[in-house]
Design a protein that fits this description.
The complex is a heterodimer of chains A (about 160) and B (about 200).
Chain A: H1 20-34, E1 36-37, E2 44-45, E3 50-51, E4 55-56, E5 63-71, H2 73-79, E6 84-87, E7 90-92, H3 97-107, E8 117-122, H4 128-140, E9 145-149, E10 151-152
Parallel strand pairs in A: 3-10, 5-8, 8-9
Antiparallel strand pairs in A: 2-5, 5-6, 6-7
Chain B: H1 14-28, E1 29-30, E2 35-40, E3 59-64, E4 70-72, E5 75-76, H2 79-91, E6 102-107, E7 111-116, E8 119-124, H3 130-156, H4 160-166, H5 171-183, E9 188-190
Parallel strand pairs in B: 3-8, 8-9
Antiparallel strand pairs in B: 3-4, 4-5, 6-7
Helix pairs in contact in B: 2-3, 3-5, 4-5
The chains are: A alpha/beta (about 160), B alpha/beta (about 200).
Chain lengths: ~160, ~200
């Protein structure tokens, strides 16, 4: 009996990893199809409220987002904790909404300009004051199709 | 010269490349599907708005104060009871003088039938929390949907939701949807907000 077995006499063959790229590619394609690109970096904390009557947004390309909420933790030192409006990547005031609406309209085809849905992503603990100001401003610039972003739930609790 | 053998390309690092791409997409994309309550804002107010007289009995007043308390048609109730109250109001009762008036209107399929002149008026304070506001909006929308569902089930044997889903395929179903919509039009009016609660 020799101390060292001869190489490759009886040991199990290595598991073939040739199919590994295929599996990873499959995963890759899955994620590419099911997800969408992150377009803005959130500067405000937004936890949307829950509702039962939610509808799915059909055409993503016809949706523009308006975020309202407290600045994120790392920005609270500079901006405080009062709720703020975020348009695209920057903090804004309600006076900036007019320009924002016009710019978003310019991005779309002429025929689709009136079909834009304005998705309000508002934190659930925000007071209505700032939301109402935004709503009034939206009315002034004729951006009337509003979506109050909220998550689906089965039951409303008091 | 010996024939050169073409060596096989090593595909071992293919997995690494694919992983790299996968991780890139995991980081840069989001998966959340966007859902929410679709509403339509009224067009901007005119300079000289005409006063429209609406009788008190035709209005269901919903008030929400800065403490997220709810007053529905003069009664202090929790949100969970709001839906049933609104449903009762929308359906109406022609013989009850407290309930909204009925007016004959042309409705597809049914012809000229009495339709309730109901309006739901919602007013919130500037200090109301957004969460509460969404809850109330949600209950109002739910009330309209349920009333329509019940009526559609009674008249056509299918709920309103099902009819809407099928409406693109057939003209008759589309007419049925329009009829139900005409009998119970969604009239949620939002009054100009007031700041009473002290919050900005």
């Amino acid at each position: 009996m020799s101390k060292f077995r001869k190489k490759g006499s009886k040991g199990q063959p290595a598991i073939s990893t040739a199919a590994l790229p295929d599996i990873v590619f499959m995963l890759l394609f899955f994620f590419m199809v099911t997800t969408t690109m992150r377009e803005t970096t959130l500067k405000v904390q937004v936890v949307t409220p829950k509702a039962t009557e939610v509808e799915k947004m059909e055409k993503k390309s016809l949706v523009s987002y308006i975020y309202i909420g407290e600045p994120i933790k790392s920005l609270q030192g500079a901006f405080g904790t009062a709720p703020r409006i975020q348009l695209n990547d920057v903090f804004a005031t309600k006076e900036d909404l007019f320009q924002f609406v016009e710019m978003e309209k310019d991005k779309r085809d002429e025929a689709e300009r009136n079909m834009i849905t304005w998705s309000l992503k508002v934190d659930q603990d925000t007071k209505m004051g700032i939301v109402t100001e935004v709503k009034q401003e939206m009315r002034k610039v004729n951006a009337l199709k509003i979506n109050y972003s909220s998550k689906k739930t089965d039951k409303i609790v008091d | 010269m010996a024939k050169r053998e073409i060596s096989e390309i090593n595909a071992g690092s293919m997995a690494d490349i694919a992983f790299l791409l996968l991780i890139f997409f995991l980081v840069t994309t989001t998966m959340d599907t966007d859902t929410g309550l679709l509403r339509k804002l009224p067009p901007p107010p005119e300079d000289n708005p005409e006063d429209i007289d609406v009788k008190q009995r035709n209005i269901f007043e919903v008030l929400v104060n800065a403490n997220d308390q709810l007053l529905a048609d003069g009664e202090y109730i929790p949100v969970t009871e709001l839906k049933d109250k609104v449903k009762e109001f929308i359906k109406g009762d022609p013989n009850n003088p407290e309930m909204p008036e009925f007016k004959n209107e042309d409705v597809p399929i049914f012809g000229n039938i009495p339709v309730s002149k109901q309006i739901v008026s919602l007013q919130n304070d500037n200090g109301t929390s957004y969460q509460m506001y969404i809850k109330v909006q949600n209950e109002l929308i739910a009330a309209y949907r349920e009333v329509r569902n019940e009526r559609a089930l009674k008249e056509f044997g299918k709920s309103y939701d099902e009819l809407v889903k099928l409406s693109e395929t057939s003209e008759t179903v589309n007419n049925q949807v329009e009829a139900i919509k005409a009998i119970y039009p969604q009239r949620i009016s939002e009054a100009e907000p007031k700041a009473i609660g002290g919050a900005k």
